[in-house]
Write the structure tokens for this entry.
Amino acid sequence: MILRLAFGSLIARSLTVCMTILAIALSVALFLGVEKVRTGAKASFADTISGTDLIVGARSGSVQLLLYSVFRIGNATNNMTWESYQDIADRPEVDWIVPISLGDSHRQFRVMGTTQAFFERYKYRSGQSLALRDGALMDDLFDTVIGADVAATLGYDIEDPIVVAHGLASFTEHEDQPFQVSGILEKTGTPVDRTVIVSLEAIEAIHVDWQSGAQIPGQSTPADVLRQMELQPQAITAALVGVKGRLQVFGLQRSINEYPQEPLLAILPGVALQELWQIVGIAETALIGVSAMVIITALIGMMATIFSSLNERRREMAIFRAMGARPRVILGLLVLEAVIMAALGAVLGLGLLYVGLFIGQPLIDSAFGLWLPIEPPSLRELWVLLGVVAAGAIVSMIPALRAYRMSLADGMMVRI
Amino acid sequence: MTPQPSTSAACSKPLSDTASVLQLDDVRYRWPGRASFGLHVPDLSLAQAETILLLGESGSGKSTLLSLICGTIIADTGRISVSGTDIAALSAGQRDRFRAEQIGLIFQQFNLLPFANVQDNILLPLKFAPERRNRVTDPNTQAAQLCNDLGLPTGVMSAKAGTLSVGQQQRVAAARALIGMPPLIIADEPTSSLDAATQATFLDLLFAQSRAHGTTVLMVSHDARLSDQFDRVIHMADVAQTVRDAA
């Protein structure tokens, strides 16, 4: 009955109570939403590359190597020679190896030279392979396969011509050797979406007439001649390596890092991703902090609502007192009321989150390549909800204690 | 919860005709922080099943006296016993429960929780008074019976208290005071918000019930016209002296 009376009292003040609940619900939905995006981003970050045991490149920092080889952010300070590549490829532990050559661009997108093996070996989202949405893999020297974002942004279709620019954000273009789109990949939510993929030989071919970063004046080898040439690259940017047995990873990593002919670096993608996430993690902590503040603000709003209701409810409290309720019953009633509001807010917030996810999931996936899974609330989320209710109870102690003192002083006589 | 020996004794002991339900001996009270106002009640005694009208002007200390009897404030000296129990001997929590067990209260107005239905309002004191609750075999039926006896329309039980007329609300308050038959009902100007005709009816209905259950009714008012309906009329000035020191 006391619970029914508490509900009745809340319903009698439904407008302010609903506003309070809504504020709590929105803040809870925001907090849980940020959590979802954070874990989703972390997962899709870690999902960027899988199935690759080692990434090898010229010696620099592990995060830097990861950034330019996988995320196409920043540049390699140095290349690794083709001889080193061959040496590693010949090692008995190596199951497969895929060379990557970066450095050129098309519009705002990076051009990556690689072999056909890339399409078999590159995996994302725990073992998913790249798939063609349209067309076929490179067949001719001047064929290219483009990522989904490249096709969407530039409006490219199969057989459209592409002119690759030398370097990044450069005005010098390899105009004499235009490429042709042979295939478009499915969207993956990884940097592959924003990559123009050509064959390793093509990268060599477009640089045949170039020296020290500039085209040799008047020299332009025709495409047919290039097709006949032996286009062995001198150097590549990095290589993705798969080993035969998991236990051999560390031995291979150590011997590559100690490779005497050239300073090289081999990294475990998972470890480097962790390192990188630790850097990004600061922003993540800030986000959580801000959304926690929003919850606290909503709870303080609730406290203010309870405070302002105390005066108009003096009579109600006096009636309870006259009927034999101890002051602590009054205190309990107010805390109970706050708990009800916070709990309703938390549950409504969870509901809002799911509604938001249902509406936003495809939009966020297509806009940011971020897949937010719709799952039953995790244990962590349930703890957050419980924490909101507990915090509501604690915060309401302040007005409740005031009501306690008021009802002690008023007794059952209130003159309004 | 183990019942307090003193309260349970007071409840279970059959009261003889001469036993007083309420007894005040040489009670003195001074409001804390207001040194200039105090109240002194040398002797006041109410017998069982009596209906008493306590007449007094505003400022004569009526409210203070009621607060003393209900145990929300404690006398500085002297003894107040309700049904034979010295209420000063009880702890604050025990006094709250004791009040719920022994005293039915009716105020001037705004007696009820407006958002709750009539039934919940009537049954509210039983929530805090387990012994009084045990005296009622079927609270819902009892509440409906009281409403009926007090002339409230049938079906009123599920109505929100806030939707009733003032006269109806006062009857619901009377039903709430009567339920579980506490030995003492204290009414603080319950009729002042009613018109003359309704006043008389209200008192008739209340007394019919209180006499049927042997309940003592102490009503406080400034309206001497009600005197005829009571067994005894006491003037505040005769039983209590307000003490006003020169400031």
The first helix of chain A runs from residue 2 to 12. The mean pLDDT of chain A is 86.
